[in-house]
Design brief:
This protein is mostly helical. The protein folds into 2 domains: about 55 residues, Arc Repressor Mutant, subunit A (Orthogonal Bundle), CATH 1.10.10; about 120 residues, Tetracycline Repressor, domain 2 (Orthogonal Bundle). Helix content is about 70%, strand content about 0%. The protein contains 9 helices and no strands. α5 runs parallel beside α8.
């Protein structure tokens, strides 16, 4: 006689665990979350969470990996070194929009810096290496200055976007009229970067 128990769906179970973990880690950081908290919010038993992810540390890494995967689509996919400045500008805007729309990513990033700030996120090294490679190709093509370090330029781009996304609501008090300030920031940021990178 067939069992009336519903068959477990592993992908849905993993998705539910990751969703609950992302929410809790973004709210409380890694150290402020227990496996019991994760079980309670996800509705999945602790042994089953361990079965899918092993340890809390491995689950935290999986949450960060899933966050990094969201950025795979921000880079416009045309040939390396072609219209690098236009592609960089589009990527910067895409990253900004994603971070503003999903505050959990910013909170996860902040907690990570507070608790274990010396570790790269999963896949972050590959993403930065890809961007560095694009900048090197553009330098060889004569589109960008050769005396600018491409890796540091990639890091500066990320820093300028992340800083504004993290601090914009606090800095709002400095502006008499907030309407359009995000757009103004992106334009001014890009002016500075473009003038610093472009061959004159």
């Amino acid at each position: 006689m067939p069992s009336k128990r519903r068959k477990r769906n592993a992908p849905l179970t993993r998705k539910a665990i990751l969703g609950a973990a992302e929410k809790l880690f973004a709210q409380n950081g890694f150290n402020g979350v227990s496996m019991r908290d994760l079980s309670r919010l996800s509705g999945i038993s602790q042994p089953l969470i361990h079965h899918h992810f092993g340890t809390k540390e491995a689950l935290y890494q999986a949450v960060k990996q899933r966050a990094m995967d969201q950025f795979k689509t921000v880079w416009p996919s045309t040939g390396a070194g072609r219209d690098i400045l236009g592609r960089l500008q589009t990527a910067a805007r895409n990253i900004f929009t994603k971070l503003v729309d999903d505050r959990k990513l910013l909170r996860l990033s902040s907690w990570t810096r507070l608790e274990d700030g010396n570790e790269l996120w999963p896949g972050e090294d590959r993403m930065m290496e890809q961007l560095r490679g694009e900048l090197v190709a553009a330098q060889k093509a004569g589109e960008l200055r050769r005396d600018v370090d491409p890796l540091l330029m990639a890091i500066m781009l990320e820093a300028l976007i992340c800083f504004w996304c993290e601090e914009r609501l606090r800095l709002k008090a400095l502006f008499k009229d907030w309407v359009g300030v995000d757009e103004r920031y992106l334009r001014e940021m890009w002016k500075v970067l473009e003038r610093g990178m472009k061959v004159r």
